[in-house]
Amino acid sequence: MADNEAKGRELMLEADKKLSSSKGFFSSLFGSSSKVEDAADLFVRAANMFKMAKKWAAAGEAFCRSAVLQMQLGSKHQAATEYVNAGTCYKKADPNEAINCLLKAVEIYTDMGRFTIAAKHHVSIAEIYETEMVDIEKAITSYEHAADYYKGEESNSSANKCLVKVAQYAAQLEQYEKSIAIYEEVGMSCMDNQLLKYSAKDYFFKAAMCHLCVDTLNAEQAIQKYEEMFPQFGDARECKLLKSLISAINEEDADKFTDTVKDYDSISRFDQWTTTMLLRVKKNISGEDLR
Q1: The pLDDT of residue 30
Q2: How far apart are CA 114 and CA 111, in angstroms?
Q3: pTM of the complete model
Q4: Would you tell me which of 14, 22, 58, 128 could form a disulfide with 35, CB atoms 3.0–4.6 Å apart?
Q5: E-only strand ranges, 92-148
């Protein structure tokens, strides 16, 4: 490991010497671009040595130095690739710097019109905000950017995956109207697709759950609307669950609410998101915990 790190440092120094020699008078006349290319390659070799030594920050810096030179040489695609490589390394050591590198790559890909790749890296940024930074609002923004890029390229399935993430987190932040609008949009887009039709009821169920966190009357009206648009929803266990929950809420019967939840959960386990929403609704009845 130490040998690899030392080799990486040697390659960095060699790259810097190449750059210094490329700035002389004669070099400016003869072959300076060749020396810049050599330096860029040396920085990549150094980065790979640092990766082997698990010196992630050093590897990220070396890839960034190569990216700057690739831009200088006019090789935008290679520059973007090196910024992505830098982001991958920095993710293990400095999430903020990883995001900065990925944003530089996104900027280049966007300028090149490579919107699908740009969207992919916006998703990577969102995932860093989710898992490393635990900054949900910024994760939402990144997923929204990704969805916009995917939509522009008619990659509607990928766009919907990003939008569902936005809806999920918006609901957690109690931005229910935003969440409802997205779940309804995605649900309707699935209705006429034979492969995705089964998913539509799940999105309408989640939209109704958001309604239920706000107001039972709105939830009842939403359920009725979803049944009219998508009859299969009315036959689903999720729809029957919602109606039973609304009945318990209207009767202010916390025990009935809890029993309904337990009966459903014994057959189909709730995911964490649904459990969170149910806990919020439960507190509106009695202020008690669901469990």
Answers
A1: 46
A2: 8
A3: 0.87
A4: 22
A5: none
